[in-house]
Amino acid sequence: xxxxxxxxxxxxxxxxxxxxxxxxxxxxxxxxxxxxxxxxxxxxxxxxxxxxxxxxxxxxxxxxxxxxxxxxxxxxxxxxxxxxxxxxxxxxxxxxxxxxxxxxxxxxxxxxxxxxxxxxxxxxxxxxxxxxxxxxxxxxxxxxxxxxxxxxxxxxxxxxxxxxxxxxxxxxxxxxxxxxxxxxxxxxxxxxxxxxxxxxxxxxxxxxxxxxxxxxxxxxxxxxxxxxxxxxxxxxxxxxxxxxxxxxxxxxxxxxxxxxxxxxxxxxxxxxxxxxxxxxxxxxxxxxxxxxxxxxxxxxxxxxxxxxxxxxxxxxxxxxxxxxxxxxxxxxxxxxxxxxxxxxxxxxx
Length: 349
Description:
Layout lengths: L2 H8 L4 H32 L13 E5 L5 E2 L4 E3 L2 E3 L5 E3 L2 E7 L2 E8 L3 E6 L9 E2 L1 E5 L10 E6 L1 H8 L11 H4 E10 L4 E10 L5 E7 L19 H4 L2 E9 L13 E2 L5 E8 L4 E8 L4 H4 L1 E7 L6 E4 L10 E10 L2 E4 L3 E4 L4
Parallel strand pairs: 16-23
Antiparallel strand pairs: 1-2, 1-6, 3-14, 4-5, 6-11, 7-10, 7-12, 8-9, 8-11, 12-13, 13-14, 15-17, 17-20, 18-19, 18-21, 21-22, 21-23
């Protein structure tokens, strides 16, 4: 089973799908920018587009990666990722990119959580998960939609998993919200400040708004120093995945003729080396089937800081009878590791 099959089966954002969409959009938008000044008045009157303008006349759009949903000052709900009451993160709550004309550079600053810059063209430095950094954009506007910002609610997840809050609805409003400030410099010196404000709702979904922003005294997080670039080989140094099937006493189980007995499993420990991933997911498919068609996501574990393993308990294998099982370690939307396939069944039958 290859990486594309797994990503499609989960319903996640496969990088090949993202890139294909970007390439299709690039040609269309290059024509749009040449005529936007002439159409501006008409567009505003018609109300068919949300054009976000600064007093200096700089026009910048923001779109959600993978879905191409435009972020506007009216706000937009997102279903690409969610957080459960137990602190499990599914998908990516907010991944977006900017589109404009002649953007020279953008400085990104996030207040409470973490952001990750991913250059799908692999031409620019990256920083891993950080809070402040500056990204050069340059003259090639067709590349802008390949420059993705991935917002990660790390502190919210930690608060839920630590037991500080028992449910999403108990988290105070100020801890549920976050803001990403973008200081945008255009070729020629024009400048604009935009911001994405994002809020976690009671049901674990997210709502985001993109609008002009004025940096004030309360925004001291903008004054933090920029993160230093990281070598790409360090950021994407994904290690190997190892699986240990343990009984209820923590002893490793030896498979019988290549099969593990579901009734004897106390836990399955999935470990890796290399950088810290975001989540580990457990998948299954009945034996004797085309796995890509019958694949099911059984469970997701959010990786805590400094951990190099995720544990899946006996509830994850309950009811399995002659099933292939494997695990996917998600470092980000474009870099994953897939474990070997193990066989689990009810051998008592």
